[in-house]
Structure formats: C-alpha cells, structure tokens
Design brief:
12 helices; Rossmann fold; D-amino Acid Aminotransferase, Chain A, domain 1; single chain; alpha+beta; four-stranded antiparallel sheet
Length: 421
C-alpha cells in the first residue's frame, strides 16, 4: 500500500483544505488526525481517512498514531500548530520518520522554556520572568521592567498578550489574563495544564517586527520568506494585521535575522521540518520573540509560491514524505496578506463590500472565515480573525496599499447579542 501522509490539524483550523489540496497535487494519500471528541466518534463514527486524537495528552495521541501505522503505512507526519508538533515528534520518533526531538518541540511550544533555552545559548531575547497565578500579581508588578508585556504560556495567536506601562496597568493586565486562562481551562484549551497557571512577563522591545518562514533539513535552515509587518505592534494589544514579502528592510538586517533564527533552532534542538519565527529589529540587532516548529498559521501561506508555482504546503508535505525536492526560490513578485481584525465584540451579521474589496487593483481574494451568526471577540480575549485578504504586485508598497484599500471597502456588521431570558 502506498504510504500516506498523516496531517495533524485541529478541527478549528483554517488550513485543512489547503493541505488536502496540496497533497492531491502531489499524489499523496492523506489521513487527517484531528481533535474529534471520542464520544462524538463513538456515536457517529469517524469519516474515512480521519483519525480521532486526544490533543490534550500527546503521549496518548502518539500511541494511537503508532497503532494506526500498524494497519496503514504512514510515510510522514505534518503538524499544523505547537500542540500537534509535539504529537508528531513523539509518533515519528517511534515510527522512524523524519522528526524533531520531542523535547525540542516541547521547548518550542512553551514560551518560558523557549526563553530559557535561548538565553542559555547566549541569544538575544527580551528580559523575562515567570509568575504563577497562585502567587498573585502585586509582587510581580513591583518588580516588572516597564514597559513590559504579559503573556500566557499556553495560548497562541497573540491571545492574552498585553502591554503594561506601570504597576496599575500590570495589575489590570494580570487579572484580565487570569480570567481568560480560567475560561480556557474550562474549555480545555491550553496546550498543557501548567501552561494555564502562569504568566510570562518580559521587557518590551521597541522596533519593527518581522516574521521568517523557513524549512529545516538535517539541522540546516533554508529561508523561504521574510515578511514585514508594516503596522506598528506597540500595544497595548498585539493584533497582527498585514504581512508583506519580500522584506523592505536592509539586506544586512535580513541576513542577521536569518542567522539568528538558525542559531535559535539549534539552541532549541529543532532539526527537521517547517519553522515560523517572529523577531523584533531593535537598535542593537534582531531579538527573538518566537520560533515555532510549524509553518505560518491561518490562511497566510496562500501568499507564498515557489519554483513552478508550488505552495508552501506542497513543500512541507514533500519534505515530510521524503519526496524529491523542488526549487525553493520564492516567486519574484511581491505578495501579502491582511488578517482582517475584529473591530468589536458581538454577533456577526454579515460583511458587505466584498465585491468592491475584491475589485481593488492587486487584490486576489478576500475570504471571510467567521460564519454569520457567530459571536466574535477582539483581542486580547478573541482567538480568531474575521478573515483574510490576499494581494500581489510588483513592489511590496503596492501590495500593502492594495490590502489597506480593500479593507477600507468592507462593511462589517457586528451587533450586540440578544439578551438572554
């Protein structure tokens, strides 16, 4: 039987369709491993080509993958977020597939463990300290370096990340994150129990922020793209909006950033597969904010094309399956994505102006990913974007202008929820 790709993707992810389409183009059969509730599976059954996994217990999930491999040959495993990266590493190690060491993926998935590993390796990271919720915020507020940024360990996509400029702001941010983590624990959302009971406090690093997309092969980093984030990310919340590539920063800064990400991956122990890194360009050089053992999230990968039109998902799948490599050169044209922010909380009743937004020169598509009737929340409590806009052009500035123009044409109808009886 032809070996299959095991795609580990949460049910809430936007990326399943893009990965399945990429696998179809490569002729690779796919088994989807998702966090489908076992009770639901027992009642209704999993669909063909699906595997139900308990993402909250990585070892248990990995054992289930190994059991599957005894019946269905698995040729590679691709994770799509930090939690599934741990499962992928554990299972791939047992099956003798390309993988990162499990302990490396755990370090990368935990903001505090990652900071410790990078600092011990002598790499530039913000000053940081960890504060358990049980100890309260008063002492931490007195000791914090201002301005500082408070971050929960077990959430992603800037959820719960808040800047504080003084002790009063620190106390308010701490309590806000504490409440958010309580909700997340009730929803069983943190990646691990400990991650839901502590807050990371780190010094705020001024400067432009960039993102690097790369692929590790036997420990060597191949840079696929560097994205500029032209909107200032200075807080108090850190909602990312526009990504544009190629970067407009000087070549020396780009080389320094790529070198730092390669060194950070080695310090964490990562050696195989995609990496997505976030950095600040400080006055003293690049500073690592995050190195994740996954590719870029949401639908943002649609901005990237390589060689003869390959998608990022195709590159990632080909690497995992050991298929012959293709050109890693990104297309010459500039490209960008705007993650459409949620302006206020309430119930989404619709988005108007879509056709007008799609008609903007350079815009390839505008996709709304939140269904009508769904209650939405902005950051820092929210955990999703309204959708995505995609653009291409000859220059990065053109792409950025197209995205802003398209966004300006949207009419977002969010209304207060009806009172409960």
């Amino acid at each position: 039987m032809e070996p299959a790709l095991l795609l580990l993707v949460p049910l809430s992810s936007y990326r399943t369709d893009d990965f399945l389409a990429a696998a179809a183009r490569l002729g690779v059969p796919v088994v989807v491993g998702s966090d489908l509730c076992h009770a639901v599976e027992e009642r209704f059954g999993a669909r063909a080509g699906e595997l139900s996994l308990d993402y909250r217990h990585p070892e248990r999930a990995a054992r289930r993958v190994v059991e599957l491999a005894a019946e269905r040959r698995i040729g590679g495993i691709v994770p799509t977020d930090e939690g599934t990266a741990i499962i992928a590493a554990l299972a791939a190690a047992e099956l003798g597939l390309r993988h990162n060491p499990p302990e490396a993926t755990r370090r990368a998935a935990n903001k505090h463990l990652q900071r410790q590993a990078l600092r011990e390796a002598g790499l530039p990271v913000p000053p940081f300290s960890l504060h358990p919720l049980a100890e309260g915020p008063e002492r931490a507020a007195r000791q914090a370096p201002y301005p500082c940024v408070l971050k929960p360990l077990g959430l992603s996509a800037s959820r719960g990340v808040i800047r504080a400029d003084d002790p009063a702001g620190f106390l308010a941010a701490f309590r806000r994150i504490e409440a958010l983590l309580g909700e997340a624990r009730a929803e069983r959302r943190p990646r691990d129990e400990a991650g839901g009971r502590a807050i990371l406090v780190e010094g705020f690093v001024p400067g432009a922020e960039i993102a690097l997309e790369g692929l590790l092969r036997e420990g060597a980093l191949e840079v696929l793209a560097i994205f500029d984030k032209p909107d200032p990310l200075d807080g108090p919340f850190f909602e990312e909006t526009i990504y544009v590539t190629p970067s407009r920063h000087p070549e020396g800064e780009r080389r320094a950033a790529a070198d730092l990400v390669a060194r950070a991956a080695r310090a964490l122990g990562l050696c195989e597969g995609p990496v997505h890194a976030e950095l600040r360009l400080s006055r003293d050089g690049p500073v690592v904010l995050e190195v994740a053992a996954r590719s870029i999230g949401g639908l943002c990968a649609r901005t990237l094309r390589f060689g003869a039109g390959l998608s990022l998902e195709e590159l990632v799948i080909a690497h995992a399956m050991g298929l012959p490599g293709s050109s890693l050169s990104r297309e010459r044209r500039a490209a960008g994505v705007m993650m459409l922010p949620i302006p206020r909380g309430g119930v989404l009743h619709g988005v108007g102006g879509l056709e007008a937004a799609r008609a903007v020169l350079g815009i390839e598509d505008v996709v709304i990913t939140v269904p009508e009737g769904r209650e939405v929340k902005p950051l820092p409590e929210g955990d999703a974007y309204l959708g995505f806009a995609f653009a291409r052009g000859e220059e990065p500035a053109e792409v950025e202008a197209s995205l802003r123009a398209a966004h300006a044409r949207l009419r977002i109808d969010i209304r207060p929820p009806l009172p409960t009886v």
